[in-house]
Amino acid sequence: MKKEEIGELFHEKLGTPAGLSDPKALTEAARHHLRGAAFVKPGGRCAFGEVEAVLQTVPEYSAALKVLSVVPGVSKANVFEVLDPHEYASLDFCVLQGELGVAENAAIWVRDFPNRAAAYLAQHIAIVVSGDALVHNLHEACARLTIGPGFGQFIAGPSKTAVSSRPLVIGAHGARSCTVIVT
What's the CATH code, domain 40-182? Predict the structure, then answer.
């Protein structure tokens, strides 16, 4: 297959610019696509771009009335100080800052923040992570993590549970949807 044919296939399947045939550019486009695809699971989605622009395309964010964000610049953030973590049960959307993303299992490492209960009690979450912070597997993640005092967790998408004779239930033990925003 000629590089021009590969470029046309990428244009058709991945939406790269028409006529793109440079091998380095095509390789980067493939990596970009695969990184995003790795973070998509039932109830989850992945998008690349500026945080507020991506959030505007997320239906759960658009419909949210109570929004908490630990990421600066989220326009709809209107929950700031909660003394009783039980109040997060009525939280519609929470935007978190991820430190590291693992492609093999779509998990994002999130460090301690004052409102950590919100990550579990919000109906929907978005996690922002830098494209430079994506690694292939947990072995690479563990090599890059610096563990210290405080709390850290891997969040791997929305809550899911099922037993062999029952259907998959999304949101049974936590968020019903998870959007990963790669900046």
Answer: 3.40.50.10420
d(CA 131, CA 134): 6
Taking the C-alpha atoms of residue 14 and residue 9, their distance in angstroms, rounded to an integer, is: 8
Classify 32 as helix, strand or coil: helix
Boundaries of every domain in the chain: 1-38, 40-182
The residue type at 69:
S
117-144 pLDDT tens trace? 888 888 898 999 988 888 888 899 889 9
| Structure confidence at residue 37 (pLDDT) | 53
The two tokens of residue 84 are 């009783």
CA–CA distances in Å: residue 133 to residues 19, 93, 130, 169, 183: 30, 24, 5, 30, 10
Contact of 108 with 155, CB cutoff 8 Å? yes
Q: How far apart are CA 97 and CA 25, in angstroms?
A: 29
Q: Is 45 helix (H, G, I), strand (E, B) or coil?
A: strand
Contacts of 150 (CB under 8 A, 6+ apart): 111, 112
